[in-house]
Amino acid sequence: MPKNEIILKIKDIKKTYHTKKNEILAVDNFSFNLKKGEFVAIVGPSGCGKSTILSILCGLEEASSGTIEMDDNLKFGYMLQSDNLFEWRTIYKNCLLGLEIKKLKDKEHLDYVNKLLKTYGLEEFKNAYPSNLSGGMRQRVSLIRTLATKPDVLLLDEPFSALDQETRLAVSDDVYKIIKRENKSAIMVTHDIGEAVSMADRVIVLSDRPSVIKNIYEIKIENRKNPIENRQTKEFAKYYNLIWKDIGYHVQPGT
Fold it and tell me: Domain ABC transporter, which positions (predicted)?
Protein backbone atom coordinates (compact mmCIF):
# COMPACT_ATOMS: atom_id res chain seq x y z
CA MET A 1 0.00 0.00 0.00
CA PRO A 2 1.51 3.38 -1.03
CA LYS A 3 2.43 5.62 1.91
CA ASN A 4 0.14 8.48 0.82
CA GLU A 5 -2.84 6.25 0.10
CA ILE A 6 -6.01 7.20 1.98
CA ILE A 7 -7.02 4.28 4.20
CA LEU A 8 -9.91 5.87 6.11
CA LYS A 9 -12.55 8.38 4.98
CA ILE A 10 -14.81 9.97 7.59
CA LYS A 11 -17.60 12.17 6.27
CA ASP A 12 -20.17 14.31 8.09
CA ILE A 13 -20.24 12.29 11.31
CA LYS A 14 -22.82 13.44 13.83
CA LYS A 15 -23.41 12.08 17.31
CA THR A 16 -26.51 12.93 19.32
CA TYR A 17 -27.22 11.67 22.83
CA HIS A 18 -30.85 11.36 23.93
CA THR A 19 -31.98 12.08 27.47
CA LYS A 20 -35.46 12.01 28.99
CA LYS A 21 -35.81 15.75 28.49
CA ASN A 22 -33.86 16.62 25.36
CA GLU A 23 -31.21 15.77 22.81
CA ILE A 24 -27.55 16.70 23.18
CA LEU A 25 -25.58 17.17 19.97
CA ALA A 26 -22.02 16.14 20.87
CA VAL A 27 -20.28 16.01 17.47
CA ASP A 28 -21.46 17.74 14.30
CA ASN A 29 -20.30 17.27 10.69
CA PHE A 30 -16.90 15.76 11.52
CA SER A 31 -14.98 14.88 8.35
CA PHE A 32 -11.38 13.98 7.53
CA ASN A 33 -9.25 11.43 5.67
CA LEU A 34 -6.39 9.40 7.15
CA LYS A 35 -3.38 8.37 5.06
CA LYS A 36 -1.19 5.31 5.42
CA GLY A 37 1.56 6.02 7.97
CA GLU A 38 0.04 9.35 9.05
CA PHE A 39 -0.16 10.53 12.67
CA VAL A 40 -3.18 12.77 13.34
CA ALA A 41 -3.91 14.44 16.68
CA ILE A 42 -7.31 15.75 17.77
CA VAL A 43 -7.40 18.55 20.35
CA GLY A 44 -10.15 20.70 21.80
CA PRO A 45 -11.76 21.89 25.02
CA SER A 46 -12.50 19.37 27.76
CA GLY A 47 -15.76 17.51 27.12
CA CYS A 48 -16.02 18.51 23.46
CA GLY A 49 -16.37 14.95 22.13
CA LYS A 50 -12.80 14.00 21.23
CA SER A 51 -13.01 10.52 22.76
CA THR A 52 -16.48 10.01 21.29
CA ILE A 53 -14.94 10.18 17.83
CA LEU A 54 -12.50 7.37 18.68
CA SER A 55 -15.33 5.28 20.12
CA ILE A 56 -17.27 5.66 16.87
CA LEU A 57 -14.25 4.73 14.76
CA CYS A 58 -13.58 1.48 16.62
CA GLY A 59 -17.26 0.51 16.85
CA LEU A 60 -17.86 1.07 20.57
CA GLU A 61 -20.51 3.66 19.68
CA GLU A 62 -22.62 4.27 16.59
CA ALA A 63 -22.73 7.60 14.81
CA SER A 64 -26.16 9.20 14.58
CA SER A 65 -25.45 10.00 10.92
CA GLY A 66 -22.56 10.25 8.47
CA THR A 67 -20.33 7.68 6.80
CA ILE A 68 -17.03 5.92 7.47
CA GLU A 69 -15.35 4.35 4.45
CA MET A 70 -12.48 1.89 4.80
CA ASP A 71 -11.26 -1.45 3.58
CA ASP A 72 -13.04 -4.37 5.24
CA ASN A 73 -9.65 -5.70 6.36
CA LEU A 74 -8.55 -2.47 8.10
CA LYS A 75 -7.79 -3.28 11.73
CA PHE A 76 -7.82 -0.90 14.71
CA GLY A 77 -5.91 -1.05 17.97
CA TYR A 78 -7.17 1.03 20.93
CA MET A 79 -4.79 2.35 23.61
CA LEU A 80 -6.64 3.86 26.58
CA GLN A 81 -5.75 6.52 29.15
CA SER A 82 -4.88 3.89 31.76
CA ASP A 83 -2.53 1.04 30.89
CA ASN A 84 -5.14 -1.44 32.27
CA LEU A 85 -2.52 -4.13 32.87
CA PHE A 86 -3.66 -7.14 34.87
CA GLU A 87 -1.52 -7.20 38.00
CA TRP A 88 -1.72 -11.01 38.36
CA ARG A 89 -0.40 -11.64 34.85
CA THR A 90 3.24 -11.38 33.82
CA ILE A 91 4.31 -8.72 31.34
CA TYR A 92 4.48 -11.35 28.60
CA LYS A 93 0.99 -12.67 29.36
CA ASN A 94 -0.39 -9.12 29.48
CA CYS A 95 1.00 -8.59 25.97
CA LEU A 96 -0.85 -11.72 24.80
CA LEU A 97 -4.28 -10.63 26.04
CA GLY A 98 -5.53 -9.29 22.70
CA LEU A 99 -4.24 -12.37 20.90
CA GLU A 100 -6.14 -14.61 23.33
CA ILE A 101 -9.37 -12.67 22.87
CA LYS A 102 -9.07 -12.74 19.06
CA LYS A 103 -7.76 -16.33 19.00
CA LEU A 104 -4.54 -15.29 17.27
CA LYS A 105 -1.99 -17.11 19.43
CA ASP A 106 -0.18 -18.61 16.45
CA LYS A 107 3.58 -18.71 15.91
CA GLU A 108 3.58 -15.59 13.72
CA HIS A 109 1.92 -13.39 16.34
CA LEU A 110 3.86 -14.87 19.28
CA ASP A 111 7.14 -14.30 17.46
CA TYR A 112 6.04 -10.71 16.78
CA VAL A 113 5.35 -10.09 20.47
CA ASN A 114 8.78 -11.44 21.41
CA LYS A 115 10.38 -9.25 18.76
CA LEU A 116 8.59 -6.16 20.10
CA LEU A 117 9.62 -6.92 23.68
CA LYS A 118 13.24 -7.32 22.61
CA THR A 119 13.29 -4.28 20.31
CA TYR A 120 11.77 -1.93 22.88
CA GLY A 121 13.78 -2.94 25.93
CA LEU A 122 11.33 -5.15 27.79
CA GLU A 123 12.58 -8.65 27.04
CA GLU A 124 14.32 -9.03 30.41
CA PHE A 125 11.08 -8.03 32.18
CA LYS A 126 8.75 -10.42 30.33
CA ASN A 127 8.36 -12.67 33.39
CA ALA A 128 8.01 -9.76 35.82
CA TYR A 129 4.67 -8.35 37.00
CA PRO A 130 3.26 -4.86 36.33
CA SER A 131 3.90 -3.76 39.92
CA ASN A 132 7.64 -4.13 39.25
CA LEU A 133 7.60 -1.61 36.38
CA SER A 134 7.70 2.18 36.23
CA GLY A 135 4.79 4.12 34.75
CA GLY A 136 6.68 4.66 31.52
CA MET A 137 7.50 0.97 31.14
CA ARG A 138 3.88 0.03 31.81
CA GLN A 139 2.79 2.31 28.96
CA ARG A 140 5.28 0.60 26.65
CA VAL A 141 3.77 -2.76 27.63
CA SER A 142 0.32 -1.35 26.90
CA LEU A 143 1.46 -0.24 23.44
CA ILE A 144 3.06 -3.62 22.68
CA ARG A 145 -0.17 -5.33 23.73
CA THR A 146 -2.02 -3.05 21.30
CA LEU A 147 0.48 -3.72 18.50
CA ALA A 148 0.44 -7.50 19.07
CA THR A 149 -2.66 -8.04 16.92
CA LYS A 150 -0.98 -6.12 14.07
CA PRO A 151 -3.51 -3.28 13.73
CA ASP A 152 -3.27 -0.89 10.78
CA VAL A 153 -4.50 2.14 12.76
CA LEU A 154 -3.78 2.93 16.40
CA LEU A 155 -6.38 4.92 18.32
CA LEU A 156 -4.71 6.66 21.27
CA ASP A 157 -7.08 8.13 23.87
CA GLU A 158 -5.09 10.49 26.13
CA PRO A 159 -2.43 7.75 26.42
CA PHE A 160 -0.04 9.70 28.66
CA SER A 161 -2.48 11.56 30.92
CA ALA A 162 -1.80 9.37 33.98
CA LEU A 163 1.96 10.09 33.90
CA ASP A 164 3.93 12.88 35.54
CA GLN A 165 5.33 15.51 33.16
CA GLU A 166 8.89 14.20 32.97
CA THR A 167 7.78 10.62 32.36
CA ARG A 168 5.13 11.84 29.94
CA LEU A 169 7.72 13.54 27.72
CA ALA A 170 9.96 10.47 27.68
CA VAL A 171 7.13 8.01 27.01
CA SER A 172 5.55 10.14 24.26
CA ASP A 173 8.97 10.12 22.60
CA ASP A 174 9.15 6.32 22.91
CA VAL A 175 5.62 5.79 21.59
CA TYR A 176 6.19 8.11 18.63
CA LYS A 177 9.36 6.23 17.63
CA ILE A 178 7.65 2.85 17.95
CA ILE A 179 4.65 3.92 15.85
CA LYS A 180 6.87 5.34 13.12
CA ARG A 181 9.26 2.38 13.16
CA GLU A 182 6.37 -0.09 12.90
CA ASN A 183 4.87 2.03 10.06
CA LYS A 184 1.47 2.43 11.70
CA SER A 185 -1.16 5.10 11.17
CA ALA A 186 -2.39 6.76 14.36
CA ILE A 187 -5.18 9.01 15.60
CA MET A 188 -4.49 10.49 19.03
CA VAL A 189 -6.89 12.41 21.24
CA THR A 190 -5.17 14.72 23.72
CA HIS A 191 -5.78 17.90 25.69
CA ASP A 192 -2.02 18.61 25.60
CA ILE A 193 -1.31 20.89 22.65
CA GLY A 194 2.45 20.51 23.01
CA GLU A 195 2.03 16.75 22.73
CA ALA A 196 -0.10 17.12 19.61
CA VAL A 197 2.23 19.55 17.80
CA SER A 198 5.41 17.64 18.64
CA MET A 199 4.06 14.23 17.58
CA ALA A 200 1.49 14.70 14.82
CA ASP A 201 1.67 15.27 11.08
CA ARG A 202 -1.70 17.02 11.31
CA VAL A 203 -3.62 18.53 14.22
CA ILE A 204 -7.41 18.81 14.10
CA VAL A 205 -8.79 21.49 16.44
CA LEU A 206 -12.35 21.02 17.67
CA SER A 207 -14.70 23.65 19.04
CA ASP A 208 -16.65 23.39 22.27
CA ARG A 209 -19.79 21.24 22.18
CA PRO A 210 -21.50 20.73 19.81
CA SER A 211 -18.08 19.89 18.44
CA VAL A 212 -17.19 20.97 14.92
CA ILE A 213 -13.79 21.21 13.24
CA LYS A 214 -12.49 24.69 13.93
CA ASN A 215 -9.16 24.32 12.13
CA ILE A 216 -6.75 21.75 10.70
CA TYR A 217 -3.00 22.36 10.79
CA GLU A 218 -0.43 20.55 8.67
CA ILE A 219 2.53 20.49 11.07
CA LYS A 220 5.60 21.38 9.05
CA ILE A 221 8.73 21.30 11.18
CA GLU A 222 12.01 21.60 9.31
CA ASN A 223 14.29 18.61 9.92
CA ARG A 224 11.60 16.88 11.98
CA LYS A 225 13.19 14.42 14.43
CA ASN A 226 11.49 13.25 17.60
CA PRO A 227 8.89 14.89 19.86
CA ILE A 228 11.39 16.15 22.46
CA GLU A 229 13.61 17.83 19.86
CA ASN A 230 10.60 19.10 17.89
CA ARG A 231 9.57 21.10 20.97
CA GLN A 232 12.74 23.19 20.66
CA THR A 233 11.94 24.51 17.17
CA LYS A 234 10.47 27.88 16.21
CA GLU A 235 7.75 26.08 14.23
CA PHE A 236 6.60 24.32 17.40
CA ALA A 237 6.05 27.65 19.17
CA LYS A 238 4.16 29.03 16.16
CA TYR A 239 1.69 26.13 15.90
CA TYR A 240 1.32 25.94 19.68
CA ASN A 241 0.22 29.59 19.90
CA LEU A 242 -2.13 29.30 16.91
CA ILE A 243 -3.90 26.31 18.42
CA TRP A 244 -4.13 27.91 21.87
CA LYS A 245 -5.86 30.88 20.26
CA ASP A 246 -8.26 28.58 18.41
CA ILE A 247 -9.24 26.85 21.63
CA GLY A 248 -9.64 30.17 23.39
CA TYR A 249 -6.73 30.29 25.82
CA HIS A 250 -4.09 33.00 25.90
CA VAL A 251 -0.95 31.59 27.45
CA GLN A 252 2.58 31.04 26.29
CA PRO A 253 3.77 27.55 25.30
CA GLY A 254 5.32 25.47 28.03
CA THR A 255 7.85 22.70 27.79
Answer: 8-233
What are 176-207's pLDDT values in tens digits? 888 888 889 999 999 899 999 999 999 999 98
Strand ranges in 36-115 using DSSP code E only, listed in sequence order? 39-43, 65-70, 76-79
Pair (187, 251) in one structural domain: yes
Cβ atoms 199, 174 nearer than 8 A: no
Query: Is residue 31 helix, strand or coil?
Result: strand
Q: Give how far Cα 245 sits from Cα of 27, 221, 238, 253, Å.
A: 21, 20, 11, 11
Q: Are residues 231 and 250 in the same domain?
A: yes
Taking only the tens place, the pLDDT of each residue in 47-79 is: 777 888 888 988 889 999 999 998 888 899 988
Structural domain of 115: 83-151
Tally of structural domains, the chain: 2
187 shares a domain with 245: yes
Q: Maximum distance among all alpha carbons in the chain?
A: 56
Reference 246, options 48, 56, 54; nearest CA is 48
Distance, in Å, from the CA atom of 173 to the CA atom of 34, rounded to the nearest integer, reads: 22
